Amino acid sequence: MFRKILTAAVALLAAVAMPTHAEIKVLATTADWGALTAELGGDKVNVYTATSALQDVHQVNAKPSLVARTRTADLVVANGAELEIGWLPVLLQESGNPKIRPGSPGYFEAVSAVRLIDVPTNVDRAMGDIHAQGNPHIQLDPRNIAAVAKALTARLASLDAGNAAYYQARGADFQSRWAAAMKGWDQKGAALKGAQVVVIHKDQAYLVRWLGLQQVAAIEPKPGVPPSAGHLAELVTKLSASPPRMILRNAYNEPKAAEWLSQRIEAPVVTLPFSVGGTREAKDLFGLFDDTLNRLLAVKP
Amino acid sequence: MGKVPFHVSVAACATAFLPSIGLAATDAEVQSLRDELARVKAEYAERMAKLEAQIAQLTPQAEVGATAAIETAVAAPAAPPAEAAAPAQVARSAATFNPAISLILAGNYTNLSNDPEDYAIQGFVPAGEEIGPGDRSFNLGESELTIAASIDPYFMGSLTAAITAENEIELEEAYFRTLALPEGFTLKGGQFFSSLGYLNEMHGHTWDFIDQPLVYQAFFGGQMAVQGLQLKWIAPLDFLVELGVESGNGDYFPGTRLSRNGLNGLVAYGHVGGDLGETLAWRTGISYVDLDAQDREFEDVNATGEDVLNAFTGSSKTWVVDAELKWTPVGDPRRQYLKLQGEYMQREEDGDLAYADSVQSLDGSYSSDQSGWYVQGVYQFLPRWRFGARYDSLDSGDTKIGLVQQGLLGVDDFSILVPGTPTRTSLMFDWSPSEFSRLRAQYAWDDAAEGPTDEQFFLQYIHALGAHGAHKF
Lengths: 301, 473
Known about the structure:
heterodimer, A: alpha/beta, Rossmann fold, four-stranded parallel beta sheet, 8 strands, about 45% helix, globular, B: alpha+beta, Porin, 2 domains, 16-stranded antiparallel barrel, 6 helices, 18 strands, about 20% helix
């Protein structure tokens, strides 16, 4: 009897699953790369984003729905540099989809287009959550977005050669709009140069570098290791003499530790979207940087 | 062992050395120093490759084996990045082909109110060594070593071996899996945990409790590892539909090895799953296990208290229904989640039961219809802190033993098969200092055996070393 049910189920599914359109199905691991793929691919791509800005992308479940989305994807747009190491390998393996295996045209890593910072010369788990290839949180430097966009446009054009001209035109359009926006951000951001900040995790490192902020302390004693009471007390002692301009918190971070510190050292907590969708204003990549700068500039020196 | 620190120190020296020179020198000096360094590095790389080759030849496999491989794997990423000279790069890229290696260290302290020697799941044929709460006092758990890598563009391979405290190596899984089959098909071959139900294919270190549910212990001896093939297909849909069949030599409880060519036994399963809104993920499935047993022996005690050896020959058919639901209220499982799961199993066995004591050997018919289930919930209420509860319930049914029905033997001559309804309640509390370590306390009231409740208390540690494991849903 079981065999009959099985046969019927397979027949039914085959009928449901007939391909109906020619758009490229994309699985993006983060909201930022999902937004970028949508910008560049227009109506030729169908983007599904695996995570939201309110999740810690290091730790995501390889949920059944994600296995299904990986199975049908023509292209996986991943961040790379071990950001998704806890779940993407399972999805790639479980999905039985050879198109999106690492090394195939259907697998794209954003970090392949940029130079990573914080590349450790030595790695040991005693140092916390460190990434052997370097800091993977590249999306908070708009120059990186431009570089990834260029590589992704090329990938889309080669994967879907029939629409190559379309992707190139969209890519060029995006690059010029992005360059114009970046000019504005650079001008606005100049006021932030040298501003002292406390961060939670080192995932704002690219933002700090781009704006020339000065990171004076991190709330996590080691990446991924929550602060102990002793460490927080040390920070208070160290910072109360000359408080930093602000404490940066990402939308997905728990607010508690940052707020605790804020009350004691007279520095405000600034909640940054970190990813597209992290705040109401950060609707797309342009909004991500507009909102990030607005929030940083709202704090008077 | 000896070669590894040498390798590391060379790499470390090279890294420390390079930048300090670059800072102080003029361009010409820098160039000459660079050439010199490149030469030195090339020499080192060559010498090291030779040395390593020699060591590999000289050292017997068993001794170097695991530890050396692990340390090499850990040391490999420590090599200096970027601007290294060409020969060094060659040496490094050879190392990058090393498979991913991970090691699980686990151990526990166990306090049991009943003697674990007397542990039994009343009414159920004993399913092997791995049932029950284990031994009292301090116990080293299984140290689980996994080595996995892509083999070529078409296959990947994985081996998991558990090194037990008794100095035995137990092969848990050793399989290949295809990477390039089209249309969502994957073929797996070798020895692997069956994908039946939900918990069966999970390795021990990912369990939410220190032990398996009673129903897994009674029906599959803890976990069923198939020696054979698995063909799996995932439907091209926006939600998960996964269908699979497995078959092999049939030599895994409740089956036994049969003197037959071809495929023995069948496991067929289907899983469906998806999301309900942003915060709920679910999966459910049904599995069917059809195996044959030939002289599946088990020890029992007869009415006079004598140890006897019985054997079942016949067919065993099991249905498994499973369901899981995970709720992440703030969307981020790192901060908070609630996971509920349950599985129900039902098994029918038909055939003959042979009985042998010191005086006589008898043979009669045997038929049983048994069932059991568990439900459990695990709540992570704060990052890193979780508690959970589980309830187990089994029903042995009324096993029909021909020898008893004919009046040749009494019910008490099959004391383990006297009908029972084992239950157990377990509470768990654990703390995970990081993604790679977990400390757990568990308390259970176990009524699986006849007699007073076994009150069980466990403390357990689980540590993961090496390659970052990726976990299933």
